[in-house]
User: Fold this.
Amino acid sequence: MTGDSSNMPDIWTAFTGVIRRDVLLAWKRPGDVLNPLFFFAMVSTLFPLAIGPSPEQLQFSGPGVVWVAALLATLLSLNSLFLSDHEDGSLDQLILSPQPLPLLALGKSIAHWLTTGLPLVFVSPVIAVTFQMPSKTISIMMLTLAFGTVSLSLLGSIGAALTVGLHRGTALLSLLILPLAMPILIFGARTVSLSAADDAVTAGIYFLAAYCMLALTLAPFATAAALRISNE
Amino acid sequence: MFRGDRCLFKNLEFALNKGELLVIEGPNGSGKTSLLRAVAGLLEFETGAVKWDGVTIRDNHQSFRADLVWLSHRVGFKGDLNILENLKFESGLRASDQTRLGEVLERLSLSRLVELPFRSLSAGQQRRVALARMLLASARLWIMDEPFTNLDKAGQALVTELIGEHIGAGGSCMVASHQPLEIDDHTRRVTLQ
Assistant:
């Protein structure tokens, strides 16, 4: 009752608290985690069946297909990022807490990546085998996907925050995010193709890493501002 | 303040002192919740400002939020987590006194329910968990939107008692309610049309 700040939890406690809570929630409702992963696996394994068994063709289209499937799977899962928090009032509590909202938003994005992006990175080698990718290309693909999905989780949180007050904002969310996600898709898929052709891949990986860092530093602030506006 | 084209209230001015209860009254749709949300900082006023300790909350939002705890229709707990997990998460957000956890849960008759998922609790029990958040938080200002909803007679009496204790200890409380609420001579009223 004294309002003193002596026992105020530090920002690290709040930050890890958000991550822990969201990962725990995902653990208790595994369906939410498995849905995008299942979508990713389905889309990318159906392609080889449709394209045909020719190794050249599979190797040629593999990187693009895997990357498009990963992008769509992440977009699918983004809609629910703030939705349940908005519906059950947790978002009000987060906004009204004395902890910095950008940090809490960053925690939400990281938890989102841990529960969708990271599993996707680990499933991707299995998909890559169906496209007959060489093992060196597979490791490059996992690296680009790791940078790409982190960026997507962060950028996507801005869109998810902007559309949280709207019902069925999925289409709008995709429209908002896709232009920002295009460079990730282009560089990601192209880098994997170059690796398959034994070309230099460093430039592409540097670009994806830089884009990831940019998203990491800017997106939480944009997300926090968007949450304040759309949670009216 | 406007919602859509409709003016909810204008030229409204009031103060809330230490050890005081402010009751917002008015019919459904008169803007009680909007007023509370605006005071808390969830909504923006078109003109005017809210001051806390003499400083507008826009300039001083961190210390204002450290002093504030909020209760509304949507209680803000996760249905898949149990009471302890939910309250533990809360303790990472704001200053609170976790040593009183057992005592608070006992008082709110929640002790035997702590391991159950929040979803499986009755609406009244869920409101009691929200009260536990307020009691544990070391916040001077309580803002409560319809605190009596879903509570039984004993629960409603408990809410009145808790508010009384809070303002008795020098805290302040702002409540929007349809139920009559009066605490001695420490009560102010604002009636919205």
Q: What stands out?
A: The interface with chain B takes residues 1-9, 13-14, 16-18, 20-21, 24-25, 28-29, 84, 87-99, 231-232 of chain A (CB under 8 Å). Residues 25 and 32 of chain A are 9 Å apart (CA to CA). The radius of gyration of chain A is 19 Å. Residues 11-230 of chain A form one domain.
